[in-house]
Amino acid sequence: MNNTLAIAQREITDRRFVFVAAGAFLLLALVVPFVPGVRSGERTAALVVGSLALALNFTLGLAAILGSSIVGRELSDGRLSFYFSKPVAATSIWWGKLTAALVLIVACFTIVALPAFVVGSTTAVRRWVNTPEEMLTTASMVIGGAIALFLVAHVLGTFVRSRSVWFLFDFVAASVCGVAVWMMGRILLLGFAIELAKALAIVVAVLVAIAVIAAGAWQIARGRTDRRRSHMELSRFLWAAIGVGLLVISGYVMWVVAVPVSQLTNPEFLQASSGSWSMITGEARNRGDYRASFLYNLNDRRSLRLTGVNPWNFQFSRHGTTSAWMTRTGLSFVRLDVPKPEPTLTRVTGGSIIALSDDGSRAAVSGDDVVAVYDLRSQASLGSIRVAQWRHAQFISRDVLRVYSGASIVEYDVRTKTLRNIDPSNARRLAGTWPLRDGRLLAVENRETASVLRLLKSDGSPIREIVLPEPRVRWTRVTESLNGIVSVVLTQHTVVVDINRGVILRQEPRMLCQAGSVGPNELCLWQQRLVIWNPATGEKRPVS
Fold first, then answer.
1. Candidate CATH numbers 2.130.10.10, 2.60.40.2310, 3.10.450.50, 2.30.40.10; the one for domain 308-431
2. Which of 266, 304, 331, 338 is most buried, by CB atoms within 10 Å?
3. Which phi and psi (to 5°) does residue 521 adopt?
């Protein structure tokens, strides 16, 4: 310890001229408020901003110079042998120089930034360093950045001054590590794990800092006064340490993204109105904010992992043969009627997918009040229309798209490129309804004493009404199944209704079902757990 402090003291003494330079920058910061053009009412702000700007630039510049010269210059000039002629441990040389650099950086920043902290702590200047916490945050960011720059400059200075072809290995190793970090971050961001990606960046930064500091001690102990050997020892230790650390981090990232569907908590899901496929997405315990997404088959429990999927931007075709979703990279779709479903990325980008044709061959995409129709197989545009404030859309045939916009409804035929407006009186009656396969419509209406499920003809004229068990429904979703059976998802439970006979077949408290055919394969959320529910028997099987 005494040797370390003695070396640090010697380094500070040899570089005491930097304190003179810091004092000059301090005087310059005090002069800034009085330069021509600065108004009297702006002098306080000018002092704070000028002092911080000068402190930032001076500290970063000092860190870069110290990092490149505190070891590298003495090594290339052959002056490092002075320390080895004394009874001093090699590690003491490194830690002494590192301590001296830290003291110089912190002291010089404090000198130049002193006016900003003194004046800024008593005067509000655009929320800059107004409180002790903000002062500490600002100082920590600048000093932390300066230390990082010092370490990077030390490594690069060693590489450049050695004049060795070993530098090519360093370039390859840095590229491999950079790609590995980018891939891990990309995997997390595809699962919307922003906080986890930030934590990954912090961990990697700390890992690299520790590796560089430890590699500096190893470099001096093993390389001694030979600059090429010093370079090789620094490189070997540095990239080995970073590589091992990245392997551990990548193992954790792989564990995070490999979460099984059975471990999802508070999941969101959609189920195809026909067939056995559903989409499930959610977070899991001990995996941060990472969201895993799956296509899940309720019959044979096969699952296909998806990335970058939002439930609000996901669609199943009515026949259940195709699913499609929009991500940052473009529109993707999966054929679900093949033995091995695989996602296909198309050239269609931007907007939201709002409807699929019954057979899954056509997709409607909305963006900036424009609704466009695409053929998924050829990825060709079949036409577009401008619709302001669309609410939802559906293909009433393979070539005809119906778009609901407020109280108006329009139909677009992609074959003739023609647009037809539905009669306004019918549009008002059809607004807020769910279409059935046979052309009839369903609507839920809140009345003073009850909530009513209304069955309508295709023109909006009434057929019958069914009173629901919940008097005032805050929100609901109606999904169709076969043989006139529908599921009505109420605020707290789900009811199964035979609309042809006008009777409620079954109701299940605390059961929230999002879609799908009522039968042995209904996907629902029951007591915060995903289950496969049989409405006829009440059997519940957990998703696995």
1. 2.130.10.10
2. 331
3. -125, 60
Residue 519 CA to residue 537 CA, distance in Å, equals: 9
Which portions of the chain are predicted below pLDDT 70?
A: 1, 37-42, 71-90, 120-135, 162, 223-227, 406-407, 423-432, 437, 472-476, 481-483, 492, 514-521, 535-538
The span from the CA of 151 to the CA of 156, in Å, is: 9
Six token digits for residue 531: 């289950």
Question: Distance (Å, rounded) from C-alpha 310 to C-alpha 326?
Answer: 8
pLDDT value at residue 126? 47
- Residue 61, token pair as written in the block: 């510049």
Q: How many CB atoms lie within 10 A of CB 282?
A: 19
Please give the Cα distance from 309 to 268 (Å, whole number): 11
Picking from 109, 107, 79, 83, the residue whose alpha carbon sits closest to that of residue 94 is 83
Tell me the domain boundaries of the chain. 1-162, 164-257, 308-431
Beta strands across the sheet bearing 441-446: 434-435, 441-446, 451-456, 462-467
- The CA distance from 138 to 208, in Å, is 22
Looking at residue 121, what is its pLDDT? 57
Q: Which two tokens stand for residue 74?
A: 């003495």
Beta-bridge mates of residue 251: none
Report the distance separating Cα 379 and Cα 348, nearest Å: 7
Q: In this predicted structure, what is the pLDDT of residue 128? A: 47
- The pTM of this model reads 0.73
Alpha helices, DSSP H, located in 70-122: 72-77, 81-84, 90-120
**CA end-to-end span of the chain, whole Å?**
59
| 89: nearest Cα among 227, 229, 218 | 218
Helix axes 194-223, 90-120, angle to 10 degrees: 140
Q: Other C-beta atoms within 10 Å of 63: how many?
A: 28
What is the number of residues in the chain? Answer: 544
The CA distance from 290 to 294, in Å, is: 13
Tell me, what's the pLDDT at 127? 47
299 burial via Cβ count (<10 Å: 0-12, 13-18, 19+): exposed
pLDDT at residue number 475:
61
Q: In the numeric block, which tokens belong to residue 519? A: 């039968």
Count other Cβ atoms within 10 Å, centred on residue 182: 10
DSSP string of 245-293, one letter each residue = HHHHHHHHHHHHHT--GGGEEEEEEEE-SSSSEEEEEEEETTSTT--EE
Helices 227-257 + 132-162 axis angle, to 10: 130
The two most distant CA atoms of the chain are separated, in Å, by 102
**Which pair of structure tokens corresponds to residue 453?**
């499920």
Give φ, ψ of 390 to 5 degrees. Answer: -65, 150
Write down the pLDDT at residue 515: 52
